[in-house]
Amino acid sequence: MNYHSPVLLQESVDALDVKEDGVYVDVTFGGGGHSREILKRLGENGKLFGFDQDPDALENVIDDERFVLIPENFRFISRFLRFHRVKKVDGILADLGVSSHQFDEAERGFSIRFDGDLDMRMNQKSKVSAKEIVNNYSEEKLAEILFLYGELRNSRNIAKTIVESRENEKIETSFQLRELLQKYLPKAKEHKILAQIFQAIRIEVNEELDVLREFLEQVPNLLKEDGRLSVISYHSLEDRLVKRFIRTGLFRGEPEKDVFGNSDVPLQKVGKLIVPNSQEIKTNNRARSAKLRIAELKSPKK
């Protein structure tokens, strides 16, 4: 199965500062590109755990006794590491978003390029698909997700059109949805707006932002002292959550300060934001919006 080149491969794995006998987690295994690079840098006593809820990823499992693939959503990272008797790890890597493979499989319904069933489930066992959302959500709820997750200013009009259209005929496919929303897709911006609409529905289907929040909240308790977090995000909603959590340890408000004005934030930013160079963007289109942020668990104050 073609999963394409992993984005920011060297940079994201360099960020982990891999120790030969360390324990690492790749929470978005996919085609296994990042995992293979981590394994190259591990010694014989090192250990790597991969997470992926998509059954297609099981076909890429790496035959290496240092590697374990856990076929679950990474929102359950602590629970499944505990099951494998792992309390603390040296580093965690996350390459968020949809894999190239998922975009390229028309029947998965992720892509605006192909006609396929309105599905968009990363976990194909999940009950809620894009079809359920488009055909069953209220106009108000549809408008809300299009506004919050697609950042669409005319979300109310788009939601109204979807609801009116489905009264006559159930909306089953990607192209059917695209066709009925054609009036909101001016030629110059057609792909951009359509991508925002699909992104909003996809985030709702897979609870992507909730998953990311739950995952990040577990990271400080999972990392060893000076352990590293390496996260690649592809849109501003994800990136804002990652950036804010690294800076404050919270998603809302500001951290409390002690009498000396110091705030107890568990993670510390490492280096600056990393983005792909022009050569990588040229050879791997998926890289164009990627942002890599790195953090380290602060050593406790002596």
TrEMBL record:
Q: Pfam families, alphabetically?
A: Methyltransf_5 (PF01795)
The places in or outside the cell where this protein is found are:
Cytoplasm
What are the protein's UniProt keywords? Answer: Cytoplasm, Methyltransferase, rRNA processing, S-adenosyl-L-methionine, Transferase
Listed HAMAP family: 16SrRNA_methyltr_H
Q: What is its EC number?
A: 2.1.1.199
Sequence positions that bind S-adenosyl-L-methionine: 32-34, 52, 74, 95, 102
- The broad enzyme category this protein falls into is transferase
Keyword Ribosomal protein part of the UniProt annotation = no
Record gene name: rsmH
Q: Tell whether Heme is among the UniProt keywords.
A: no
Q: Give the Gene Ontology MF terms in alphabetical order.
A: rRNA (cytosine-N4-)-methyltransferase activity
Q: What does this protein do?
A: Specifically methylates the N4 position of cytidine in position 1402 (C1402) of 16S rRNA.
Per the UniProt record, the source organism is: Polaribacter marinus
- GO CC entries: cytoplasm
According to UniProt, the reaction catalysed is:
cytidine(1402) in 16S rRNA + S-adenosyl-L-methionine = N(4)-methylcytidine(1402) in 16S rRNA + S-adenosyl-L-homocysteine + H(+)
PANTHER family reported in the protein's UniProt record: 12S RRNA N4-METHYLCYTIDINE METHYLTRANSFERASE, S-ADENOSYL-METHYLTRANSFERASE MRAW
InterPro entries xrefs: RsmH, SAM-dep_MeTrfase_MraW_recog, SAM-dependent_MTases_sf
Q: Single Gene Ontology BP term?
A: rRNA base methylation
Protein name in UniProt: Ribosomal RNA small subunit methyltransferase H
Q: Which family does it belong to?
A: Belongs to the methyltransferase superfamily. RsmH family.
Q: Which Gene3D superfamilies match?
A: Putative methyltransferase TM0872, insert domain, Vaccinia Virus protein VP39
